[in-house]
């Protein structure tokens, strides 16, 4: 018996294969949505930090060469 014949003989297996939203697809979609929200959240945080740095006239390259001292002031 061919696979196509088996599918037509067993209607339950056919409906499972063609189900538009299997539990795996739903889990994958949920994971993708969570990852997208995380990326958006990181982008917002980056934008806030970027605005603060621009306000203080500090460049990203300068931050790579500095550290924050114990009293929270920037030191080179």
Radius of gyration: 27 Å
Oligomer: single chain
What is the 3D shape?
elongated
Tally of extended strands?
2
The end-to-end span amounts to: 77 Å
State the helix count. Answer: 4
Topology:
Layout: H1 3-9, H2 11-17, H3 23-55, H4 60-64, E1 67-68, E2 74-75
Antiparallel strand pairs: 1-2
Region (Disordered): 1-43
Biased composition (Basic and acidic residues): 13-30
Explained architecture:
- The chain is mainly α and 76 residues long.
- The chain has a domain of 41 residues.
- The protein has four helices and two strands; from the N terminus they run ααααββ.
- It has a two-stranded antiparallel sheet with strand order 1-2.
- The chain is elongated, with a radius of gyration of 27 Å.
- The relative contact order is 0.06.
In short:
Residues 1-43 are annotated as: Disordered. This protein has 76 residues and is mainly alpha-helical.
Features:
single chain; 76 residues; mainly alpha; two-stranded antiparallel ribbon; 68% helix; elongated
């Amino acid at each position: 018996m061919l696979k196509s014949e088996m599918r037509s003989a067993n209607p339950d297996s056919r409906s499972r294969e063609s189900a538009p939203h299997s539990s795996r697809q739903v889990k994958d979609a949920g994971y993708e949505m969570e990852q997208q929200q995380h990326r958006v959240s990181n982008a917002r945080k980056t934008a806030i930090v970027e605005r603060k740095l621009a306000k203080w006239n500090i460049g990203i390259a300068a931050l790579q060469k500095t550290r924050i001292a114990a009293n929270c002031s920037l030191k080179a």
